[in-house]
Amino acid sequence: MRHSVLSLLTLLCLIFLLQGCGRPMVTDERAAESTDETTGETTGPDVESSPELEKAADAYEEYVAGELVLLEKRTKPFVDAVIAGDVERAKELYAPAREPWERIEPIAAQLGDYDPEIDAREGDVPADEWGGFHRIEKALWVKGTTDGQKEHARKLMEDVEHLRGEIGELELEPADLVTGSVELLNEVSAGKITGEEERYSHTDLYDIQANVEGTEAAFDELKPEVAEEDSALANDVEEGFDQVYEELDQYRRGDGWVSYEQLDESDRRALSQKVDALAEPLSQAGQVLEKN
Length: 292
Description:
Layout: H1 8-13, E1 34-35, E2 42-43, H2 51-84, H3 87-103, H4 114-119, H5 132-143, H6 150-167, H7 177-191, H8 204-229, H9 231-249, E3 252-253, E4 256-257, H10 265-288
């Protein structure tokens, strides 16, 4: 097995997902990170296992497995359109195909080589190694062609199939919380609000919505434990999700979303503020689950 994913501690990294987006960390005492006195490095909450949290981790693992089945199902027609040279059909299928991937992106850093192979942006990896969704995205929107993309499309399909197959065999293992959370925060803060992620297609709202959905799915499993310790905090998190969804809903168009180019600076700022308002109680939830 070449990957170690979906550990209990990795699951808890999810609560930090939306705290990125280029903004300061929460300074509330309950949410403050601890510092390793030996190394000086910041660490996340030290959460000990329990039967309830083990069950939550198992449930989220099932959620991820289900999303990978959907990813495979949606990627297949997208890849077929690319191979067939049908640019317009490939464009139509691109963003919906990526939604399941974006829902599991909170644990993407734990997927080893699959993350860059499937989702690397231009400049993330050497040019001769760049493939996956975003390489095809550039060809479709910038060049208006699928020429030269058949090999990348086939490789994308192969990676998705292999990942889906391996997830079902994996067992929960401890993970490096610090590494996982830092990588995740860096990835989120790098481009979701700025529009860097989908720089050619401008389908960023599909990604943002799916990221929030994936984070909420994790919190739903953790919520009973959080609520037992702090019911008001659990309610704050739920309200935060509702407010982010409400902010996003104005940009829905049918089953999809408007181009991210249609959001001006004030629109993006308003969305960022809603994400901030959700990030604070989410970060505090991690401290509530910390066992001393």
